C-alpha cells in the first residue's frame, strides 16, 4: 500500500481511489448520501419546498459523486492540476449545498415534532435523515479540505 502523504501531490486512478486520501471518502459520501435520499423519499412531505431542495441536493450529489468517482477510477483525469482544482470546487459546492439542505431538513423536522402521534413515524425517519445529512455534510467538508491541500501541493 502506498503512503498517503507521498500521494497527496497526484491524482490516483483505478483502485488507488480506495486507498488514498481524500479519495477514500467517495464511498462513504455515496452511502450516507444515498441514505439521505432514501429516508427523505420515504417521509411525509408536509412543506414541499424544503423537502424538495433536500431531495434535489441528495440526488444531484449522489449522481455527480458517482460520476466523479468513475472518472477518477478510469484514469480519465490525466493527473493534471486542473482536475485537482475541479475536485476541490465540486466538493466545496457539494458541501455548501448539503449544509443548506441539512439546515432546512432540520427545520422541517423540528416543525414536525409539534405534530400528533400520526406523524411520529415520519418524525423518526426525518430525524434519521437529518443525522445522515449532517454526517454527509461533514464527509464532503473533510473531502473539500483535503482536496484543497492536494490541489495546492501540485
Automatic annotation (TrEMBL):
Would the keyword Membrane be found if you checked this record's keyword annotation? Answer: yes
> Which keywords does the record carry?
Membrane, Transmembrane, Transmembrane helix
List cellular component terms (GO).
membrane
| Record GO biological process | myelination
Q: Where in the cell is it found?
A: Membrane
Q: How does it sit in the membrane?
A: Multi-pass membrane protein
* PANTHER family assigned to the protein according to its UniProt record, in alphabetical order: MAL-LIKE PROTEIN-RELATED, MARVEL-CONTAINING POTENTIAL LIPID RAFT-ASSOCIATED PROTEIN
- Put simply, this protein is called Myelin and lymphocyte protein-like
Q: Which organism is it from?
A: Betta splendens (Siamese fighting fish)
Which lineage do the record's taxonomy fields give for this organism?
Eukaryota, Metazoa, Chordata, Craniata, Vertebrata
Amino acid at each position: 500500500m502506498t503512503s498517503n502523504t507521498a500521494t497527496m501531490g497526484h491524482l490516483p486512478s483505478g483502485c488507488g481511489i480506495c486507498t488514498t486520501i481524500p479519495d477514500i471518502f467517495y464511498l462513504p459520501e455515496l452511502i450516507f448520501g444515498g441514505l439521505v435520499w432514501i429516508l427523505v423519499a420515504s417521509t411525509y412531505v408536509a412543506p414541499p419546498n424544503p423537502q424538495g431542495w433536500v431531495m434535489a441536493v441528495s440526488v444531484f450529489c449522489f449522481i455527480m459523486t458517482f460520476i466523479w468517482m468513475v472518472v477518477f477510477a478510469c484514469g480519465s483525469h490525466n493527473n493534471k492540476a486542473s482536475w485537482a482544482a475541479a475536485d476541490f470546487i465540486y466538493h466545496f459546492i457539494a458541501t455548501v449545498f448539503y449544509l443548506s439542505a441539512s439546515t432546512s431538513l432540520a427545520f422541517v423536522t423540528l416543525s414536525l415534532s409539534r405534530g400528533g402521534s400520526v406523524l411520529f413515524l415520519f418524525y423518526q425517519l426525518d430525524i434519521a435523515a437529518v443525522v445522515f445529512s449532517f454526517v454527509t455534510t461533514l464527509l464532503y467538508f473533510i473531502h473539500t479540505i483535503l482536496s484543497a491541500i492536494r490541489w495546492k501541493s501540485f
